[in-house]
EAL domain-containing protein
Amino acid sequence: KRKGKNSFSIFDNAMQQSLLDEHTLTADLNIALGRTHEIEPWFQPKVDQLGRFTGFEALVRWNHPERGLMNPGDFIDLAERKNLIIPLSDHVLRHACQQMSDWRRQFDIDSWTVSVNISQSQLAMRDFPEKVEKVLAATGLPARALLLEITETVVAENIYHSIRQMELIRALGVQFSLDDFGTGYSSLSYLRQLPIDELKIDKTFVDSLLHDEEGYAIVRAILSLAHSLKLSVVAEGIEEQPQWQELKTLGCEGFQGYLFSRPCPASQITEELGKQGLT
Ligand code: C2E
Ligand code: CA
Ligand code: CA
Ligand code: CA
């Protein structure tokens, strides 16, 4: 009986602690968004079949003064619930476009693109297409150099409004990528309806590619389906050479993963581009 009571109070404390944590973290996030360098996108290179860089995906990081470097998994959810996801996402979009624009000016990378993840509330905002247009104008990034990544969850709430928004943005020359493909409930119906240019095969499928026949069959089917729909395909989460080899054999055209590079801060990418002599 005593033990029971004891574990109950532990649970209670843990819950209180996590509420307290959430409260401080929300306050911190509010402050961080007003500062310049605390929240920034990092960049993970994308490569082609020959392993040459073709661009980057921007992935947000929060360098918290006390907690250290935090991944999106630690705060995106919170930002979404506390109505901070819009300022957070806008901040990332602006910084990613500015950085890519700077790199384009500095290095000979005309055909490269930057991919930015878009949240549900961001796409839903009526003024989002206008915001994208303004960011491109302000940063000098050509629309064709920007890809916006959406997931099924992002469009699910209001598919018709989402499609309309996407069409307005696409009219600017910006491209759309359907992220985490195959992990949701109705991937195929979205594939038919959404105005997209690229499809990203989720890491879970890449992981199963060489492990079982079913995994292999699914990846092959996704590639064949996407190509019939004239979509280009990027596979994500590639960690081993044989996975890359097999995906190339199957006709996949773009690749991302630790095998090529982890996400890194912009300064490190600048250094790398300099070394490659792309100026
Ligand atoms: P995602 O868009 O599917 O991004 C890919 C995630 O896989 C990233 O995690 C990346 O670091 C990780 N990754 C890449 N290659 C490998 C690999 O070879 N092995 C393994 N194990 N992982 C790999 P990250 O940066 O923690 O981001 C997690 C998720 O947070 C993203 O998933 C995306 O949904 C979301 N996210 C990131 N940045 C933003 C943002 O600016 N806005 C919004 N709304 N969401 C974001
Ligand atoms: Ca993504
Ligand atoms: Ca993904
Ligand atoms: Ca994923």
Remarks:
- Confidence is low (pLDDT under 50) at residues 1-6.
- The longest helix spans residues 2-34.
- The first strand starts at residue 39 and ends at 47.
